[in-house]
Amino acid sequence: SSRLWLQRFGVTLRGRAAPRVATSGGLPAATPTAQTMAATQVAPQDAADGAAPAGTPPIAEKRDTVVRGVKVQELTMWRSMTCSTATSDFDVVDLASPSGCGSVPATPSWAPSRVPHDVVASPTGEPLLLPVSAEFGDTPISVADLPEDTPVLIRVFRFFETRSDGSTRWERELQNVNSGSLLWAPVHMQPKMHSVSGAKYGNWFTVHHIEVLAKHFKSGYFMCEEGACPLAKTFGGTRGVSKLVTGQSLPEGYFWFVTPHRDVEDDPLARLGWRHVGMEGPFDGTAFLKEWKAGGSPTDAPGLQEMMNDFLSIEAVL
């Protein structure tokens, strides 16, 4: 699952005490460029007895948190750090500079394909990338500021009617289907937002991590039908959608995406502009909606992201 994938690389979805990224000119000082795609490799290791492996500096502590009345041990990792260049697309860089590594800058850079992001809207409806975990900062990166062929790792939400629908290949691997950004989750579920009754496409959802080339956020969006999408040639997305069925508008917009699939493709990222990385779920959309309302019905990106991360964390262990 994508949760195991995230744990493998030490990404905590509830890392509120993590260090923040220094900013410069409104963007993270470490905003990726073609020259900063190489990153410090981090090799996370689980501490079986709660203690760090010998010689490894701790950057997180185990602690218990009560969420929805359930005591949950937050995700933690003890990490060993080296100064070597990352060799895997899935290496994740750490925000703390290990002592004795003169080649590591005070604020290490990271590649956007190595940190999962939610896609959120700017005031003008343009896509911004907000790290899923506060561990990697809380300042969005503008997709427009990235080189066109930059791969970015994003989190998307896919709704369907029955839990068993999630077992189909197109649902498991997001093939020839439509999905949405973080804000799409409550907008889809809540009556009188996307639809009069709410949950137009079903009460169950999965969470997917996909890698996308930055240039294809500008590519065309097409509707798919039951795992078939003949018109879409590459990944594509809408501009930020803020209009509701009532005629009112959201302060911030959401996005829809299309992920076409061709069985003959041997390099989907290069040929189709996207590739599937992992899936989590299915989750009960009705339960999510209840928690969203109980949490004050947030639609702002930071508030909704925190609420969603709490919900996914607790649902994964129930």
Brief write-up:
This protein is α+β, with helices and mostly antiparallel strands. The protein has helices at residues 2-8, 169-173, 184-189, 268-272, 285-294, 301-315; strands at residues 23-24, 27-28, 40-45, 64-67, 70-73, 78-85, 116-121, 127-131, 141-142, 151-160, 177-180, 204-213, 236-237, 241-243, 249-254, 256-259, 274-284. β1 and β2 form a beta hairpin.
Structure description:
The protein is of the alpha+beta class. Helix content is 15%, strand content 28%. The strands form 6 sheets. Strands 9-8-7-10-12-17 form a 6-stranded mixed beta sheet. Strands 11-16-13 form a 3-stranded antiparallel beta sheet, with no helix packed on it. It has a two-stranded antiparallel ribbon with strand order 1-2. A hairpin with a 2-residue loop joins strand 4 and strand 5.
Relevant terms:
318 residues, 15% helix, 6-stranded mixed sheet, 28% strand, 6 helices, alpha+beta, disordered N terminus, globular
